[in-house]
Write a structure and sequence with these properties.
The two termini are 19 Å apart. This protein has 16 helices and six strands. It has a six-stranded mixed β-sheet, sandwiched between helices. It has 367 residues and is an alpha/beta fold. β3 and β4 form a beta hairpin.
């Protein structure tokens, strides 16, 4: 673990092995197969000649030659014939056999294309479902980083109920947050949380207002009470008390809070980081460094792994220096999922992928 869906050219992936969606001869073809052979050079074809082909659903491994990847795992996917000819079983076997070869070679990272979804005609949404299911099942028992590489901007999950529900929730929140009938209330809320959006909303209001009722320019500036609030608060507070409170709140950092919550739930470290779709090495860094500062998607991943409530999620976010905000689409996705007790990281990542948002767990650092 982890597992990521990325948009990239598979021939540029800097991983231990890339998977080639090959034909049974293994001697090259069109699409991904042709691109991989072209990038690897003629040496790949020479080695493939010695393999005597490959059966559908099976896999074989060669060197990567001129590719950034050290190896190429060749697998033969099924041709779609309507679904009644063991296509799903054979396609799942392509992923499993490829991962088994990677494990036998002690590889740490593998990148797959979406097998059989091109010229072989397998319906893309169903092909993606098989891929995610087979890969996640394997990763429950193995430590491996797997990328599913999609070339270009393709939609795979928009038909799923969770995506539709989350999208509707985001739309509703944006309407209530940014276009409330009580415009001044909406403006003040925005100025407190998102200055840029507040300025943009003011421009919209100004443009939409009738010319004979256009407000004076200073009416569209920062609300006065927001400017005055810091002054009133600073005059009323005791700086020493504020300092003591701040120190108390920061005594336990993100790392300590995370480890405490894992213990409180009776989980092992491995159970937690696998469920969070986080690499073991990253988790080791978090455990060994009390000052570790994670990214927000990584914090969200652990929120889901620990199945935290909204108050608990807000607590651990504060420990990492973040907060939930309704001006962020990603935060709204997380808020919706927690509120509806949807804690499957990969299911949530499907929604984030379709919304073109960062995925939960490890962030990709491949070329």
């Amino acid at each position: 673990m982890p597992f990521e869906i990325v948009r990239n050219d598979i021939t540029r992936m800097k991983v231990d092995a890339i998977v080639n969606a090959a034909n049974r001869s293994l001697l090259g073809g069109g699409g991904v197969d042709g691109a991989i052979h072209a990038a690897a050079g003629p040496e790949l074809l020479e080695e493939c000649r010695r393999l005597n082909g490959c059966e559908t659903g099976d896999a074989k491994i060669t060197g990567g030659y001129r590719l950034p990847a050290r190896y190429v795992i060749h697998t033969v996917g099924p041709v779609w014939q309507g679904g009644g000819y063991r296509e799903r079983e054979l396609l799942s076997s392509c992923y499993t056999r490829s991962l088994e070869l990677a494990a036998e070679k002690n590889l740490e990272s593998v990148a797959f294309p979406l097998i059989s979804a091109g010229a072989y005609g397998y319906p893309k949404e169903e092909a993606m479902e098989v891929a995610v299911e087979a890969i996640t099942r394997f990763l429950l028992l193995h430590d491996l980083t797997v990328y599913l590489v999609v070339f270009g901007r393709q939609a795979f999950f928009t038909g799923k109920k969770l995506f539709r529900d989350v999208r509707e929730y985001i739309d509703d929140c944006y309407v209530s947050e940014h276009f409330s009938p009580n415009r001044e209330f909406a403006r003040k809320n925005l100025w407190r949380g998102d200055v840029f959006r507040a300025q943009e909303l003011d421009k919209e209001y100004r443009a939409a207002a009738p010319k004979d009722a256009a407000p004076a320019p200073d009416e569209w500036s920062v609300p006065e009470e927001i400017l005055e609030a810091p002054k009133r608060k600073s005059a009323a507070r005791n700086p020493l008390q504020d300092l003591k409170k701040l120190v108390k709140q920061t005594d336990e950092g993100f790392s300590q809070a995370l480890l405490r919550m894992i213990d409180e739930r009776g989980m092992t470290d491995a159970q937690c980081y696998k469920k969070a779709n986080v690499d073991r090495r990253l988790f080791s860094k978090i455990r060994s460094d009390p000052e570790y500062r994670p990214s927000k998607p990584t914090v969200f991943a652990f929120v889901m792994a620990l199945e935290l409530s909204l108050p608990e999620a807000e607590e651990i976010l504060r420990k990492a220096g973040f907060a939930l905000t309704r001006s962020s689409r990603m935060d709204l996705v997380i808020e919706y999922c927690i509120s509806h007790r949807i804690y499957d990281v990969l299911q949530i990542n499907e929604v984030l992928y379709e919304l073109d948002l960062p995925l939960l767990g490890n962030s990709s650092n491949v070329a």
